[in-house]
Automatic annotation (TrEMBL):
Entry protein name: Sulfotransferase domain-containing protein
Xref: InterPro entries: P-loop_NTPase (IPR027417)
Taxonomic source organism: marine sediment metagenome
Length: 129
């Protein structure tokens, strides 16, 4: 069975390092990745399609594509069904590989979405504040 690996965690928690190692080990993270910059010289290893997708429900709830404080789970759950087909399309695209994955700074705010990903293996990075 094909495996999906999602690396989730806050910014500056090591998610890029973990995703970069997973890519070297053969996890397909796609080709459209965020560009390196002075903060992550080797890159963020963040699939742009999944990154942009995760902004959609936030914008639907808050009017912005990011948050200072996560929206209430109930509010997110109300809008999530309208984006499920989009998620399934992304999963189908990448699930062609035996092991595929993506990095998510927002994914843990969407537990209902994570349930839509077959054979999910979740890696959660936590950093000390």
């Amino acid at each position: 069975m094909k495996k999906a690996v999602v690396v989730a965690g806050m910014h500056r928690s090591g998610t890029s390092a973990i995703m970069g190692v997973l890519q070297v080990l053969g996890v397909d993270i796609g080709d459209d990745l965020g560009a390196p910059d002075e903060y992550n010289e080797k890159g963020y290893f963040e699939n742009r399609e999944f990154e942009l997708f995760e902004h959609l429900p936030l914008k639907a709830v808050t009017g912005q594509d990011d948050w200072a404080h996560p929206p209430q789970e109930e509010a997110l759950n109300e809008v999530l069904p309208q984006f499920t087909d989009h998620l399934k399309s992304l999963v189908s695209k990448y699930a062609r590989s035996e092991i595929w994955g993506y990095k998510s700074a927002r994914g843990l705010a969407f537990p209902e979405y994570l349930k839509q990903i077959p054979n999910l293996h979740l890696i959660v990075n936590i950093r000390s504040p």
